[in-house]
TrEMBL record:
This is GNAT family N-acetyltransferase. It comes from the Bacteria. SUPFAM superfamilies: Acyl-CoA N-acyltransferases (Nat). Keywords: Acyltransferase, Transferase.
Length: 172
């Protein structure tokens, strides 16, 4: 898949994991993100065995960003009435190269992930962000997500309000 500005989207492969880890630790850290090194490496390792999917964005052959996602059995308590059997997915990591931030790449990647999940039969998609992360909030809003709830989360959120906002998108 190609975006109109020369950015190419493709599915991540096991051989991409090392570069993705280096990328997220270079371009992902900010006051809003929770990136425990061991957990991030374990999550990305899931690409090799199929537990995790990822969509990579490349510009002129260089990694420009990526989003990881997986099927989930969680979030049942947030399902709308009558949707308890709907398949669910969770979008976990979304990171864009610092020099490309603000160009809409994150929103376009997230929409592409949503399209891919819809093609795979997913009915509901969930994603979380720091309550005060305006950039992530805008990306999620542009992709059609709505806020479900905000909760105290001091273990993952060391700054600001120390709260997490859960967002949801119904696909069918």
């Amino acid at each position: 898949m190609s975006l109109d500005d020369g950015v190419q989207l493709r599915t991540a492969r096991a051989g991409d994991i090392e570069a993705m880890a280096a990328f997220i630790f270079e371009h992902g850290p900010n006051p809003w993100n929770f990136l425990p090194e061991d957990e991030v490496h374990e999550h990305l390792a899931g690409i090799a065995d199929g537990r995790v999917q990822a969509l990579l964005a490349e510009e002129r052959g260089l990694l420009a960003g990526f989003i990881t996602f997986y099927f989930s059995t969680g979030f049942a308590e947030h399902q709308e009435a009558g949707r308890g059997d709907s398949s669910r997915a969770y979008v976990c990591e979304a990171v864009v190269h610092r020099e490309l931030a603000g160009r809409g790449l994150g929103s376009r990647m997230l929409r592409a992930v949503v399209e891919r999940l819809a093609e795979q039969g997913v009915g509901d998609v969930y994603i979380e962000r720091h309550e005060e992360n305006a950039g992530s909030a805008g990306m999620m809003r542009k992709a059609g997500f709505r806020e479900v709830r905000t909760f105290d989360d001091p273990q993952r959120r060391a700054t600001g309000s120390r709260r997490t906002t859960l967002c949801h998108l119904r696909l069918d």
